[in-house]
Prior knowledge:
The chain is mostly helical. The chain is about 50% helix and about 5% strand. The chain is built from nine helices and three strands, in the order ααβββααααααα. The protein has a three-stranded mixed sheet, covered by helices on one side. The longest helix is centred in the middle third of the chain and has 19 residues, at about 115-135. The chain starts with about 25 loop residues before the first helix and ends with a helix.
Amino acid sequence: xxxxxxxxxxxxxxxxxxxxxxxxxDLRATASSTPAKSFNPHHEAxxxxxxxxxxxxxxxxxxxxxxxxDKICLPARERFTSEANFYATALHELTHWTGxxxxxxRSFGKRFDDDAYAFEELVAELxxxxxxxxxxxxxxxxxxxxxxxxxxxxxxxxxxxxxxxAASQAAKASDFIMGQAxxxxxxxxxxxxxxPRITGHLIKLLGxxxxxxxxxxxx
Length: 219
């Protein structure tokens, strides 16, 4: 009689060293000896975040702005693939923050109804691109960009002029953010930087918007 050999998967629970009590000292030392990824702060960008007076918190699993708590939550700086990408993401959330009732009081419910959230994402994407461009970080990319694409493309499908409204609102948000630095010492440093530059991310974003606009405008 032939016997059939059956393979069964084995499952294991994995724990971070920090979650385990009672480990020998030598094992804890080995685990903690792995060098952390270094982060080189961009002075002007850091000062913009500080002088915004926004409530910014770190060590979260994802980046988001909470309107109810009026605070920005971000992963640790070292978790981003580059310093520029960290600032692009932080400024994306800071652009959301500018829409608060006590600031620019941005609301799109009347015009976009259920798509208001998607339109706000487009404004935040453009606003962050404008601001990092003023800081000279032309290679900055919002790392969750792909998560937003479908949302703002949906807006373009329903409103062919949405991109122009979004660009206008994003410019106001970026001006508000930069204006927060006008009373700080960094204003002279920022204004002495090269003229606002078009970032690669912004070119890509606008290209996608215009391409989708033309697609749905076609009969």
